[in-house]
Amino acid sequence: MKNYKLEIAYDGSRYFGWEHQPDRETVQGKLEKVLSLMTDEAAEVIGAGRTDAGVHAKAMIANVRLNTEKTCEEIRDYMNHYLPDDIGVTDVRECSDRFHARYKAVGKLYTYTLWVGENKPVFERKFVTVLDQMPDLEAMKKAAAYLEGEHDYKAFCGNPKFSKSTVRIVDKIEIVRRKDKIYLNFHGTGFLQNMVRIMTGTILEAGFHRMTPEDVKAALESRDRQMAGPTAPASGLCLMKVDY
Q1: CATH 3.30.70.580 fits 2-95, yes or no
Q2: Torsion angle of alpha carbons 11, 106, 182, 27, nearest 10°?
């Protein structure tokens, strides 16, 4: 039995997130079903993270142990043949037996995309969050700067029952406008449940002058979810890269 590293892209719009759930369609569940069909054995696909319902990925990394004579290319092609059109395996390669997609990850890059164009984003509607007015980008950047670094991000965790450490490192938050889109790029060692979406919603509060950048700093220091802004919709968020 060999260990394989998978790179997976998916449109998360119709899925209840990455993680396998009984009686619900998830990305992990779809992958395991196809691989179990291929090997005639139960397959356990381990992802680098657990994206929320409705969140997308350009390059989710996973590993799985398989007993098969197929080449990496044949595994990839088999999976892509039987997977639905909104999930694609872009790369398969053998890796060391010690490789673990989640535990070996040292960083992740998420991008949240906002639409500020005058026209409706008909063909991109599933992958952006539409704003009805232009936010103050400078205020957003000032607010984002307070969220960079190593902090306790409890105020930005969507799970009130989370009992483990909520300290994380967010080493860079970049805000860039290109034509009709505003991109918020978040790079860090790891993220809490809903963390990127809550940070986005809070930064947008500063952009619309409903919070000051200093209010965002105070929310972070409070460790109180009620002090932070709303959770931005899932549709605009995409996992872009996992670092090893």
Answers
A1: yes
A2: 10
